[in-house]
Amino acid sequence: MAEFDYAPESIKEEWNDLFSQMSEASTKVSKDKWKHFTPQFVDTNTPSVDEISQALNASEERRKLYKEQCIFQMEGKAVIDTTMPITLFPIADIHFGSVYSNVELWEKHRKAISETPGAYVVFLHNLVDNDIKFKNANMPNGIPPHEQFRVMQKWIKDLDQEGKVLGAIWSDCHDGWSMAQAGIEAEKLLFGYEGRKFPVIENGGILNLEVDEQKYSIGLWHKQGPFNSRFNPEHALRQNRRLNHEGATDVEIGAHYHNTAASANYEGAKNRMKPVHFIRVGTYKGVPTSLNEQEYITDRWAVEKFGSSGEMPGTALMFFNKEHRIDNSLDFETAMEKHMAIRTLALVREMGLSDKLSKLMK
Q: What is the DSSP secondary-structure string of 169-213?
């Protein structure tokens, strides 16, 4: 061996002889004496159940509990037994709590709806500002979130008790930030009170409305997916009607972007042609109380991003009860005036005084 080249020959011979003896002896030793001996353990705690089965059972129980506690539904239905047309005011983006929000205007609209027979609301989210997500100087809140939710729920509950609310939708925007930031189910802070009558519908869901003899299908949106256009306010609503509602709705209503629009056109061909209305509801944040107001508080967050503030709320839809007809309005005052005028005319007809009214009008 090269390692022992320096050693005397006698040492080399002794080493080689020892190595030969060791090799020969190893063949005579039982392999059992060379195996690994596994230690024995006493009183070690081990799981007494199947962890996978336990996890699946727990998951299923949680899903069941979630379903039982969930207040959301994919579609809702409201039936109004009436002899006259009704007017629906879609309300969204109040952003109550923000110093930029026009609470005076919201109070004016809320009281008018409350006091007007045949006027109803549907809520389309962002009812409170709930600035718990960004906490920046451009989104200041005048009152803390818990007070915002408490006051807003009182307003909603009062309208609900008066039979004024036909539905609401839920999204992940301002109201929903409580879940994202703190795991709080904020929908229950607004709509989880005992005795609520109206449905809380998932974003993009449908409200099926029956007005006496007529049935209407209304698509309700807060956020509207990837289709929004600053140049064409109805574009997202038209695409979602086509893709998600299979072109079957009579109305599509959207919020979130703080712009206002009310339009209608015929959709479908030949014997499937019908008028369809597209509504964007505006906002109460960063808007004047009236268009004549020249100096008012704008939405600083929007102005610094887009160079413009919000657009006026108050869009409305009148649903007729004897014929399948809808009329839309862009502003609140016009909607209220049309509502009262058309219902008065319906009452005159019901009383058999149409001829007398015609003569007076002439």
A: EE-SSGGGHHHHHH---HHHHHH-STT--S-EEEEEEEEEEEETT
Residue 101's contacts (CB-CB under 8 Å, 6 or more residues apart) are: 94, 95, 129, 284, 285, 286
Q: What is the pTM of this model?
A: 0.83
CB 299 within 8 A of CB 310: yes
How many Å apart are CA 358 and CA 362, to the nearest integer? 6
pLDDT single digits (tens) 97-145: 999 999 999 999 999 999 999 999 999 999 999 877 665 555 688 888 8
Q: Could you read off the pLDDT of 68-104 as tens digits, one per residue?
A: 888 899 999 999 999 999 999 999 999 999 999 999 9
3-class secondary structure, 250: coil
Q: Yes or no: say if 206 and 217 are a contact pair by the CB < 8 Å rule.
A: yes
Strands 200-211 and 214-220: antiparallel
Cα–Cα distance measured from residue 143 to residue 153, given in angstroms and rounded to the nearest whole number = 15
